[in-house]
Amino acid sequence: MHEIMTDIEFQTAEEIKTYQEGLLKDALLYLKNNSKYYRRMFEKYHIDIGKILTIEDLQKIPFTEKKDLQLFNEEFLCCPKAKIVDYVTTSGTLGDPVTFGCTEKDLQRLAYNEKKSFECAGVKPGDIVQLMTTMDKRFMAGLAYFLGIRELGASIIRVGNGIPELQWDTIGRLKPDTLMCVPSFILRLIQYAQEHGIDYRHSSVKRIIGIGEGLREQNFELNLLGRRIREKWDVELFATYSSTEMGATFSECPYGCGGHVHPELIIVEIIGEDNLPVPDGQVGEVVVTTLGVEGMPLLRFRTGDMAAKITEQCACGRNSYRLTPLVGRKNNMIKLKGTTLYPPAVNDVLDNTPYVENYVVIVQDSDAGTDDVLVQLGLKYQPEFDAVKDIKDRFRSRIRVAPRVEIMPAAEVAAINFPAGSRKPVKFIDRRSPSGSKNA
């Protein structure tokens, strides 16, 4: 992905729209020629892509949903498998992960995306970024960050997630100015520093870029988690929003007023309950069309995330639209330790564990302002090993993260599953505040 002569984000809204519509035309033609799934869709619904000329015309095309990716995964691949350089997975609504294949061109696109996102957050060539995210477990984000920082000309320290002692040892030795991590982990870092006499307030760290969890309310003031970090540590905080399916990131600039879109990489629609676009500034579901993806491009993909689009010029000078922090979860979406989950993926792990008799998944707000997930389960029999540890290992192997697990008498769990008057078993209880904005 080559830099365009003038960054499109600083051009007028009209120029940005015209530019995107040109890329959309190319994307539709590419899908028609290379995607078995979309070619079948165009034929089934009698869609003439030659008549899809504007972003508004996208409304003539059906949505793509996560279940489609799961049911027809390989039909979305638009190139020979021999061209795939990297395979990644993301959670699926039906349990099994969805696989994405990235070509060399896609990895260059990811690098370009993250380079622009880091630049948006103020990272410069020569800065040192400590990555507290995994690059293994088929995780796209960690690799994308590595590629983007490298493209930008900054330095990278690949520490990985967790292990506060190692993080602080690295900060002390290599003096990074930027940390990239799940924001709630910062509270653990601070606690460790306090308990071990580390003068964290006077460390080299000046900037923290958060992934997977929100740091701001809808009015862009810091949320509970952001305030708790800022009260203890005077650092710049930046929130980001991204997903494997989008292959793009919405990153805050220093003004912290929403995540900026990179118009050359993605088209965003905000869709209401009637499946039609809502007015700018109104909350709806984020629907994306990827631009420039070679391996598995997506057309009108429903993310399940709820946000609003802001179109007025940002104080930083960019005219590209921004997204507000996510305001809710469609279909009971869960953000656990920075990973997006849906209840069926959690159920799938438990349903395939032979010694589990029954269970209930409880999601509630935590003191840090993020999702707290508790699995209460009854056992068919007592295994010879530590059941809680085994369950957590099963979660980590399937969905990368593990909720809290509590073993209870199976009769007590059954009473929760089948309350009086309920026609269906209750396996998911959402106790979160409906106004929570935790997922940006």
Number of helices: 11
Strand order of the largest sheet: 4-3-5-6-7-8
Number of domains: 2
Describe the sheet with the most strands: 6 strands, mixed
What is the architecture of the largest domain at the second tier of CATH?
3-Layer(aba) Sandwich
The CATH superfamily name of the largest domain is: ANL, N-terminal domain
Portion in helices: 25-40%
Structural class: alpha/beta
Low-confidence stretches: 1-5, 436-440
If you had to describe this structure to a student in words, what would you say it looks like?
Helix 1 packs across helix 2 (36-44), helix 4 (104-120) packs across helix 5 (140-152) and helix 9 packs across helix 10 (387-399). The chain has helices at residues 13-34, 36-44, 66-71, 104-120, 140-152, 164-174, 183-195, 224-232, 343-351, 387-399, 410-417, and strands at residues 84-90, 98-103, 128-131, 155-158, 178-181, 207-210, 236-243, 248-251, 259-260, 266-271, 284-290, 301-307, 309-310, 322-323, 328-329, 334-336, 339-341, 356-365, 371-379, 404-407, 428-430. The chain folds into two domains: 8-328, Rossmann fold; 339-430, GMP Synthetase, Chain A, domain 3. It has 440 residues and is of the alpha/beta class. The longest helix is centred in the first third of the chain and has 22 residues, at 13-34. The model is unreliable at 1-5 and 436-440 (pLDDT under 50). The protein is globular. A six-stranded mixed sheet has the order 4-3-5-6-7-8, sandwiched between helices. The protein has a four-stranded antiparallel sheet with strand order 10-11-12-15, with helices on one face. A four-stranded mixed sheet has the order 20-19-18-21, with helices on both faces.
